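Ops channel
N.P.: pipeline sanity check, posting one input/output pair.
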């Protein structure tokens, strides 16, 4: 059943996010509803079921795979008597843990405050409960208002700060001169950092967790005497919180202003086709979809893809598939130059390098038509 498969994928991804944030997942709950319950997101029966499980197994946190409205969050927290996280909150948390530069930290802080602002009352309800309430009146609306104002001020300040850094980064980009700029794009965890490392022989943080790359890194790469700049961008992800899309604007500027996109795909992932679609959609949103692109299908060493049509490979798990055979699959038939590699074993690296060289050279020649 296709719906079931999708559901499992989504839950797998959420579990992976939770793991990245440092949590272990004990149990999954799913429910089919025509639309989410406006009060508690899940129905009351399901809420009861979760509550019982949480009590019996001393679970600390319940995570929802969607952004909950402020009131849903409040209601759930009260009814389940446990810490509630939604997808947005979880992603923000991961970004906060991993932000390395002051720029990324500012972006995440801004996104967190924007998330917090409409949910501010919740914090106070908590505090009231802790105080026990006897003889103590909870903080009134005025105090919440004061707090809101402080946060709003902070938000304006952070926005100003980002504007200043944005300008600096734009100047930096201008100062890089006329060298061709290529950007690695792709879903999160597909192997962009690994590829960046091998191509530039630098050490960019790569690990099997989502969002290992938060900050954009730019490296000079030389292939066959031809130097160009290579950018490693933040991994794209399904349902990226809107607060983050806005605050990661200049990360995306790197993509928008690059000359060539190297779209990396993890074909060992069961939903890699969805990932390609998500990435293309974001590229379209930032108006970068008409740029020259190279498709790099990565992780062929870990291939578990099932045959989808007559042209496709059989049997699915066969090892040592030649590049020629790969090119005969539907993946090899895109309008973009395409290559199949393993960033780990470096299989088909010469072919990939030649392809990048050719594309960079084309752009280079169009830019310096009178040089050798
Ligand atoms: P990014 O989020 O796109 O930058 O992905 P990373 O470069 O951090 O890689 C994510 C994970 O995939 C890491 O654990 C890598 O070691 C692993 N990985 C990268 N390339 C390959 C590959 O070709 N084959 C296999 N099996 N794993 C890979």
């Amino acid at each position: 059943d296709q719906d079931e498969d999708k559901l499992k994928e989504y839950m797998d991804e959420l579990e992976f996010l939770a793991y990245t944030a440092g949590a272990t997942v004990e149990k999954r709950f799913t429910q089919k509803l025509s639309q989410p319950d406006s009060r508690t997101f899940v129905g009351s029966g399901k809420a009861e079921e979760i509550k019982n499980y949480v009590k019996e197994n001393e679970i600390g946190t319940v995570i929802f795979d969607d952004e909950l409205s402020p009131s849903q969050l409040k209601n759930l927290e009260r009814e389940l008597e446990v810490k509630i996280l939604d997808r947005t909150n979880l992603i923000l948390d991961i970004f906060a843990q991993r932000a390395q530069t002051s720029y990324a930290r500012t972006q995440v802080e801004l996104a967190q405050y924007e998330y917090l602002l409409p949910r501010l009352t919740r914090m106070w309800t908590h505090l009231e409960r802790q105080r026990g309430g006897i003889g103590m009146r909870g903080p009134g609306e005025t105090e919440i208002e004061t707090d809101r104002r402080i946060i709003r001020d902070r938000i304006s300040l952070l926005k100003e700060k980002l504007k200043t850094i944005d300008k600096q980064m734009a100047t930096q980009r201008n100062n890089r001169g006329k060298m061709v700029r290529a950007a690695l794009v792709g879903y999160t965890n597909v192997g962009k950092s690994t590829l960046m490392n091998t191509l530039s022989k630098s050490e960019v943080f790569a690990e099997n967790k989502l969002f290992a790359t938060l900050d954009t890194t730019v490296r000079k790469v030389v292939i066959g005497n031809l130097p160009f700049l290579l950018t490693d961008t933040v991994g794209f992800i399904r349902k990226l919180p809107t607060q983050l899309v806005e605050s990661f604007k200049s990360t995306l500027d790197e993509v928008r202003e690059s000359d060539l996109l190297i779209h990396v795909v993890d074909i060992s992932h069961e939903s890699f086709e969805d990932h390609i679609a998500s990435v293309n959609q974001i590229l379209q949103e930032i108006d970068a979809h008409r740029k020259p692109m190279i498709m790099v299908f990565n992780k062929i060493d870990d291939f578990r893809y099932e045959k989808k049509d007559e042209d496709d490979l059989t049997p699915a798990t066969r090892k040592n598939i030649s590049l020629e055979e790969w090119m005969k699959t539907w993946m090899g038939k895109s309008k973009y130059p395409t290559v199949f590699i393993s960033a780990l074993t470096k299989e088909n690296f010469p072919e990939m390098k030649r392809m990048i060289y050719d594309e960079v050279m084309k752009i280079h020649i169009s830019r310096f038509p009178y040089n050798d």
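N.P.: looks fine end to end. The domain at 178-367 is CATH 3.40.50.300 (Rossmann fold).
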